[in-house]
Amino acid sequence: MEKPISKLLKHERLRIKVDLRKIGLILLQIVFIVALSRIADFAVEALRLPVPGSILGIVLLFALLKLKVVKLSWIDLGAQWLLAEMLLFFVPSTVGIVNYESLIRSSGLSLAAIIVSSTVAVMLCAGYAAQLLSRNQARGEREG
Question: What domain count does the chain have?
Fold first, then answer.
């Protein structure tokens, strides 16, 4: 009876070891993404560029990925985790709006309309882009 229990414990220790490695890899990838963002922020300030550092960071990451300087596997798990937890990053700004009660009373309806319309616009653009990519991918598979 001891053999199955020892096998189970060995399997459990291996699973925990793999989980810790995955967590470490995710943390390392997040640190890389944040470091790239900080570098972009510094570049925007130093060069006095008229764009936000976050936009420059995204463009820089895109260029590094396209030029194959950075492999997707180097940031994939960290980026997936950040996207999955994105709502968590909006909580402080959502809670912070409570401090602007007068703005909400005077312009709340306009702000709500802007939020809804911009959300719809983003959804439409994302859907259109996904359709274009899907068509191009299907066309490439048929030709290739």
Answer: 2
* Statement to judge: residues 9 and 39 lie in one domain: yes
What tens digit of pLDDT does each residue of 56-82 get? 999 999 999 999 999 999 999 999 999
- The answer to whether the pTM exceeds 0.90 is no
Range of the domain at 40: 1-84
Question: Are 14 and 65 members of one domain?
Answer: yes
- C-beta of residue 53 within 8 angstroms of C-beta of residue 33: no
Please, what is the Cα angle at 131 between 127 and 135, to 5 degrees? 170
